[in-house]
């Protein structure tokens, strides 16, 4: 075989390999399917009765790499001395867990303001709020018994409070209370964010109140809550338990 023929065969083989490579990388690829519907389409051995070998096995490591290569890179961390066993992804700066077990009990769209007691000594008082619980509290805050909204949207607002009467004149009468949720200093009227409750004419006595409704809130809106006792002397009632306003973000 002459050198020219060998060169021609080598050229044809090279072109053929190049075309095959183009065909492989230019089409969708499938595992357990001859008709892939995506860049990589993996089908189970049997959709009705799959086996333990079905699925994708992500690289499992005992320690996180110092850094990732590409944002979105995925690994599974297992048997680490400090961190939880779970999936971690590289966000371009650090490895982050998909979900932390310590955070799973708190909805990522929930913002909860809590506090204890009232401010004031008259018939009308302000409910105290001092703590904020949230998966991501960015923009939200609780200061001076006021709950500042950090995200514009539609929310389910849920309010809870308990009040008790430990003293009063004799004979005592039924005590009536009006709770109001205010936005920027004005009672929310649509929907009606007020609720009434009462305690019987006996000592000691107590009542619990709750209200909820769908409200539109803007970033920067300030929520407060008040309680108004409509009769008897002002010093005969007090809060007990925890005051709470919960905001559940629904949509923009």
Explained architecture:
- It is a single chain.
- The protein is mainly beta and 252 residues long.
- The protein has a domain at 110-251: Jelly Rolls (Sandwich).
- 10% of the residues lie in helices and 41% in strands.
- The protein contains one helix and 20 strands.
- It has one helix spanning 3-26, and strands at 29-31, 40-42, 60-61, 74-77, 86-90, 95-97, 110-115, 118-119, 124-127, 131-134, 141-143, 146-148, 153-165, 175-183, 186-187, 194-199, 205-217, 222-229, 238-239, 243-251.
- The strands form four sheets. Strands 8, 9, 11, 12, 14, 15, 16 and 18 form an eight-stranded antiparallel beta sheet that branches. Strands 7, 10, 13, 17, 19 and 20 form a six-stranded antiparallel beta sheet that branches.
- The chain is elongated and about 85 Å long.
- The termini are far apart.
- The model is unreliable at 17-24 and 101-106 (pLDDT under 50).
